[in-house]
Amino acid sequence: MLLGSQLRRLRETRGITREAAGYSIRASESKISRMELGRVSFKTRDVEDLLTLYGVTDEQERNSLLALAKEANVAGWWHSYTDVLPNWFPTYVGLEGAASVIRVYEVQFVHGLLQTEEYARAVVRRGMKDAGEADVERRVALRLERQKHLVAENAPAFHIVLDEAALRRPYGDRQVMRGQLQHLIDMSERPNVTLQVMPFGFGGHAGESGAFTILGFPDSDLSDVVYMEQLTSALYLDKPEDVAQYEAALGELRRDSPGPEESRDVIRGLLQLG
Predict the structure, then answer these.
(1) Are 166 and 109 in contact (CB under 8 A)?
(2) Residue 79: which of 68, 67, 93, 69 has the closest Cα?
(3) What's the CA angle centered on 188, arms 146 and 223, to 5 degrees?
(4) DSSP code for 170
(5) Of 106, 110, 127, nearest in space to 214 by CA
(6) pTM of this prediction?
(7) CATH of the domain spanning 77-273
(8) Cα angle 37, 2, 240; round to 5
């Protein structure tokens, strides 16, 4: 998907139509469209020909994009879980694992990267009421595997604004919620994690459209991606004008929320109430 985004940007910058691009690699316009959306695998020769057509002659830039093409064709560890995942979610897991900066607004429940095992199990069971226990456990295992990225040596910077509703809405019993609140306090003290709580008392705020995630990548040539999950699908936005609006909304949410230490105090208060 990241490679497709870059190829689309290069094509549009040169004013080349999808039809012309398809002709250059002996393919249809629809295949170029699928490539740019990241929905097909990439042949090295096709990428080389497109880069030539788009006037990319710098060796370093070509090699970077060709390396990305090779990576795009390698199945990630998460592909072994595709039998229990909706078809749009493996793409997100791959992007999340490649991100160097993850910025989030969450309102319904605690974000998956910060969930305890018991809380995650309660969330999955609530969302997959007809699933067997084995499928539930595989979903939980995937969530725990994703969390390793957040505590790895080269962990991404993780900035999250949690709506107070996510902290008060019970998933699991009292003990599960207490464990989850304490885990949030502990994780918020990690150097790569910045956690803020948007309190009920603030009233209306910039997160009115619901939860979203903004993923940033170490290669400056790669566009940020906004991810929004829906009931039966997900949206991936990478156009600068779209990303900019979500960045502005998250910036406003962060400015309007208490800082990290005050937010920890909010969570400590809820822990005492529980």
Answers:
(1) yes
(2) 93
(3) 55
(4) -
(5) 106
(6) 0.80
(7) 3.30.870
(8) 85
* β-bridge mates for residue 215, sequence order: 102, 225
- In the chain, what are the domain boundaries? 2-72, 77-273
Distance, in Å, from the CA atom of 9 to the CA atom of 274, rounded to the nearest integer, reads 51
Distances (CA, A) of 75 to 19, 90, 227, 240: 29, 10, 21, 28
pLDDT digits (tens, 9 = 90+) for 206-265: 667 889 999 998 877 678 999 999 888 999 998 899 999 999 999 999 999 999 999 999
C-alpha–C-alpha distance, residues 155 and 149, integer Å: 6
pLDDT in tens, 103-117: 999 999 999 999 999
Architecture of domain 2-72 in this structure: Orthogonal Bundle (1.10)
Q: Which residue has the tokens 């699928």?
A: 34
Of 164, 163, 181, residue with least CA distance to 172: 181
Query: To 5 degrees, how large is the angle CA 54–CA 57–CA 63?
Result: 100
d(CA 92, CA 128): 19
Residue 191 to residues 54, 148, 184, 226, 271: CA-CA distances in angstroms? 41, 15, 14, 24, 23
